[in-house]
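In this supplementary section we document a worked example of the pipeline. Step one takes a protein sequence of length 125 as its only input; no multiple sequence alignment statistics are reported here. Step two produces a three-dimensional model, which step three serialises into structure tokens for compact storage. The input and output of this example are shown verbatim.
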Amino acid sequence: MKTYADTSLLFSLYSTDANSTKADAWRVPNPDPWPFTAFHRLELRNALNLAVFQNRLTPVEVQSAWQEVENDIAAGLLVVRGGLWHRIFGEAEAIAANHTSAIGCRTLDVLHVAGAKPTWLRKSE
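The serialised model returned by step three reads:
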């Protein structure tokens, strides 16, 4: 893998924003798989749900975007990468999925809350 996509590029690819046309045009000639980390999962999930809070996306659009992400993981276009923080990021992703669209959390706020919850310590790797 030669390319690492930041979350803003992933957001533009999986939803519709001002940069989506450019992102789509760039992706077509660059089909190589990209690493997809726990931080990507968390930040993209939260960004999509924050867009619901900001009335830029609907919950149905977010669900559709996330299904595309899951499809690309299954197809090998996004390659899941682990890391030391994968459990805490997983907890943070669950918080983002369940609360951001209602209360408008930013990713680092969600990460702070997940880190403060002792439940992630008990999960097996």
